[in-house]
Design brief:
This protein has eight helices and nine strands. It is of the alpha/beta class. The protein has a single domain, classed as Rossmann fold, CATH 3.40.50. The strands form two sheets. The chain has a seven-stranded mixed beta sheet with strand order 1-3-2-4-5-8-9, sandwiched between helices. Strands 6-7 form a two-stranded antiparallel sheet. It is globular, with a radius of gyration of 17 Å.
Length: 257
């Protein structure tokens, strides 16, 4: 899909791995990568297996292990170039970042709008059975966010392509998301690196309680939390994205100073 390409900026000796969410693509974190690169930070956003293709049916064949290995590859790619490596993730990407921080020596963990629990979603608990009856489900974004994103793209001088994501989701992939939620909650106590948790009160997808739940589970002694009031789920592209980028940059610089 146009805009779904992975990206790599090799700049200074500080690096940040940026991971996108389920059914999406590196496009979700592209502005964050570009912003940090302009500040002299090396960034890499891999395209997770089964994502960003012109054929959404490829999503059905991917498992959480594939996504974790994509993230692990990205981490080692940056580690070869950088003395300091941070891991950041949006939504499902934040779950992968948490698993990485639990098993690899990272300098910091940045989690944006990631779910440990989604009790209001009626599909999640039954995805493991629904996948045999309905392998795919149509989930287009009917919110106002796609139009806001197009306006931001036009203002920035980017290609006006809106969201780069699947409108048709694999129920198998949704089941894999539930597994990642359980794993991230289980391994969070093994994370000892400083953590920055960014969530939004207005997020219609991931309830704010997830910020508190993750903060309680992490083994980190240094945890910074910030709650936005206006942005929706895609913090890296919504109305407060500039503040998101600035807070992440400040977090990285504070630790590496």
């Amino acid at each position: 899909m146009p805009g779904a390409e992975p990206l790599l900026h090799l700049q200074g000796r500080i690096g940040c791995l940026c991971l996108h969410g389920i059914s999406a693509s590196p496009h979700e974190v592209r502005w964050l990568c570009d912003y940090l690169a302009e500040k002299g930070i090396s960034t890499h956003a891999p395209r997770l297996t089964g994502h960003g293709a012109t054929d959404y049916r490829l999503h059905r064949h991917a498992h959480w292990q594939d996504w974790y290995l994509n993230a692990l590859d990205g981490y080692h790619l940056l580690r070869q170039h950088c003395d300091h490596v941070f891991v950041a993730g949006l939504s499902m990407g934040g779950l992968l970042a948490t698993l990485l921080a639990a098993s690899q020596p990272v300098d910091g963990l940045i989690v944006m709008a990631s779910p440990l629990e989604l009790h209001g979603n009626k599909l999640l608990p039954y995805a493991r059975w629904i996948k045999f009856i309905r392998p795919f489900i149509h989930l287009p974004d009917h919110s106002e966010f796609p139009e806001r994103l197009k306006a931001f793209q036009q203002k920035r001088g980017d290609r006006v392509i809106g969201r780069v994501r699947y409108d048709t989701w694999s129920t198998q992939a949704i089941e894999e998301l539930t597994k990642l939620m359980t794993l991230a909650a289980s391994y969070a106590p093994q994370v000892t690196a400083p953590a920055l948790l960014l969530y939004s009160q207005a997020d219609p997808t991931v309830p704010l309680i997830n910020q508190q739940r993750l903060a309680e589970k992490l083994g980190s002694t240094q945890i910074s939390c910030h709650t936005y009031e206006t942005s929706g789920h895609i913090l890296t592209q919504d109305v407060e994205h500039q503040d998101v980028f600035e807070r992440i940059h400040h977090f990285i610089m504070q630790i590496t100073a």
